[in-house]
Amino acid sequence: MERLIEILEEIQPGADYRTCTNLVDGHILDSLSILSLVAELEEEFDIIIPTVEIIPDHFNSAESIYALIVRLREEE
Q1: What Rg, from alpha-carbon coordinates, does the chain have?
Q2: Other CB atoms within 10 Å distance of the CB of residue 21
Q3: Distance CA 24, CA 65 (A)
Q4: Could you tell me the CA-to-CA distances from 68 to 5, 7, 14 in Å, in that order?
Q5: Long-range contacts: 52-59, Cβ < 8 Å, 24+?
Q6: What are the mean pLDDT values of the chain's consecutive 10-residue runs (76 residues total)?
Q7: Strands, DSSP E only, in 8-55?
Q8: Rounded Cα–Cα distance for residues 23 and 71 (Å)
Q9: Side-chain half-sphere exposure of 1, counting CA atoms within 13 A
Q10: Long-range contacts, stretch 48-54, CB < 8 angstroms, 24+ apart
């Protein structure tokens, strides 16, 4: 989870990623930020995030992003 927070801070600094639950809905992460984030997550965690998984529910909080990472790693 700590590495995820670091990646989020690198892509879009200034948000409280530990408590924020509206990263997409609150426009903290925009479409370009999400694309950068997906690329970073795939490289860092050795996963592939299918396009169908790139939905606001999976990217609205660090917890939901981390849950997606864990699930995708378990499915491999």
Answers
A1: 11
A2: 11
A3: 11
A4: 14, 15, 23
A5: 56/24, 56/25, 59/23, 59/24, 59/29, 59/34
A6: 97 95 96 97 97 96 98 92
A7: none
A8: 20
A9: 9
A10: 48/72
Looking at residue 29, its pLDDT comes to: 96
The 10 Å CB-count burial string (b at 16+, else e) for 44-72 is ebebebeeeeeeeebbbbbebbbebbeeb
Residue 32 one-letter amino acid: L
Structure-block tokens of residue 23: 């990263």
Name the strand (E) or helix (H) holding 58: helix 56-59
Can you read off the two tokens belonging to residue 65?
A: 């992003």
Question: CA-to-CA distance for 60 and 36, rounded, in angstroms?
Answer: 15
Q: Which residue has the tokens 């700590």?
A: 2
In contact, 22 and 43? CB cutoff 8 Å: no
